[in-house]
Amino acid sequence: MCGIVGYVGGQEAREVLIDGLKRLEYRGYDSAGLALGSGKDLLIIKEVGKVEDLERMLQKVPAGYHQGIGHTRWATHGGVSQANAHPHKDGKGQFALVHNGIIENFSELREELERKGVVFLSETDTEAIVHLVATSFSRTGDILETLVYLQKRLRGTFALALMQQGLPDRIYTIRRGSPLVLGSGNGEAFCASDIPAFLPYTRRIQYPEEGDIAEISPGGIRIWDEKGRPVERSVVTVDWDVSMTEKSGFSHYMLKEIHEQGTVLRRSLKGRVVDGKTMISGELGWNVEMVSKWKKVHIVACGSSYYSALVAERLLEKWTDLEIKVDIASEYRYRHVACDPTTLAVFVSQSGETADTLAALRKARAAGAHCLAITNVRGSTLAREVHSVLLLKAGPEIGVAATKSFTGQLAALFLVALQLGSMRGILAPHEEERLVNELIRIPYKVELLLEKDGEIKEIARKYAQNKNMLFIGRGMSFPVAQEGALKLKEVSYIHAEALAAGEMKHGPIALLEPGVPVLAVIPKDSLYEKTLSNIQEIKARNASLIAVCTEGDRFVPEQAGSVIETPWTDEEFTPFLSVIPLQLLSFHIALILGREIDQPRNLAKSVTVE
């Protein structure tokens, strides 16, 4: 949710911090601020609004600050106001602190501190932390001892960055439950909620473990565990480059990322399918004996990741003999599910930091399940806590609405389903070869479909003023319809609902009228005729109809007012193609309506709190 960036080194800190905050805007926020340190004082500047508003305020600040922490806030405790914006400081101005997460016991901490005479200036849980730091430090005089004590007192999730007056070359961080990465360069060091914040300056990354305390300075990074014992964390050189975080000539990140999907799919498949066979068992650390012991698969995810999991559910049912269960992470973590050592538990998360998904993972792992992460971030919490990892290789996704990560997840889940079917002897070698060969062709078909962008833009003009839209599909196309409805809601704010097409007669058909367009996902598959009968029912009730169908279809164009044709592919692979027009349609409708497409209201890229 909130974004943190910290810098200490030889450059002007405010320039590095503002650049970093802009690269974290995709996380969603309502206010921004930073603290700058010199040898004498801590200067705090913060305001409601955008980072560019903060940047204008900084024009009056003199140069010469080489240490700082910055923050973009997404309101949880306390409303959107300057007082509640970060950074926060203690009463004497000795410490400045920024925080991502939620402190669950902040009310009791606040009451305790107020009894000691501490005066609070905000409604936030974060301010309780900085006052607790100050009162503890006044007693111990030792910052490491103070931060060890702090962790014992805080309940909840947090990533913290802390500066102390009079220490112009030190920033301290703590991570528990919320994302935080550390970066080191030549005579400078960084901390941030996500890698893109400091990617222009270094690709040398360290991922703190749960409870780690870090000191970053121009001389390097030192790390202690939650008990204050020195520890070593490996340095990783990430393969992302700064161009991946730029718009590269596109008007919006979302549009750029839609157009990157062919490349993402090639990258996701490279080296993982060879000579008609799926070759990920070594990457996952699986063997036939291990796989043969599994009886069921649980796939757990949130949002778009959940819809990719629903596609995988249908594949696994077809290609394996396993019992398949798919659930939303926020539900799974609280249900009494039969999870045990015979379970393969798959957790799908672009960021690898989704709070509900992490909680579900810990539940499944405690039950003895073999846990697999499908994620885009190698060093994420999810990737570190599972037994096996399959990376999307999608590169950083900046737009809040998932596009290339969705198709990357589809590719990864397809590979898992193919590998399981093959290793369990359910999927015949010749069938695996046929499927793999078509999977390799999918990136090219995606790119052919992207050439229809202008055609889809014209369709968007026809429907942009509607207040509601229904999406329907069957079989593999039902999760695609759900993902299409979600995209439209996210970026255009139009109310959209997705239905299994066969459910229309069980109530939702009452909604049909001329002002409610229906988008039907109807490729040439085994359920084509069933879905065709559904759209005929829709036409009979004078509702506007948009259809995403297969090239050469002679019947659907007779029923639909607008048609988007996709290249032919096998039924199993239709989601890769059907989803592209839905992404583009949502983008162009949102553009016509003047929405903030890359940063939709009330949304954050990574939901790191429950």
Characterise this structure:
α15 (429-450) packs parallel to α20 (574-592) and α16 crosses α20 (574-592). The model has no long low-confidence stretch (mean pLDDT 93). The strands form five sheets. The protein has an eight-stranded antiparallel sheet, covered by helices on one side. A seven-stranded antiparallel sheet has the order 5-6-7-8-12-13-14. A five-stranded parallel sheet has the order 19-18-20-21-22, with helices on both faces. It has three domains: 3-244, Glutamine Phosphoribosylpyrophosphate, subunit 1, domain 1, CATH 3.60.20; 247-450, Glucose-6-phosphate isomerase like protein, domain 1 (Rossmann fold), CATH 3.40.50; 453-592, Rossmann fold (3-Layer(aba) Sandwich). The termini are close together. By secondary structure, it is α/β, with parallel strands linked by helices.
Which structural category fits the helices and strands? alpha/beta
Rg, alpha carbons: 25 Å
Within CATH, the superfamily of the largest domain carries the name: Aminohydrolase, N-terminal nucleophile (Ntn) domain
Approximate helicity band: 25-40%
Question: What is the CA-CA span between the terminal residues?
Answer: 11 Å
Average pLDDT, rounded to a whole number, is: 93
Q: Work out the count of structural domains.
A: 3
Strand order of the largest sheet: 3-2-4-1-10-9-11-15
Uncertain segments: none
CATH architecture grouping of the largest domain: 4-Layer Sandwich
Q: Could you give the count of β-strands?
A: 27
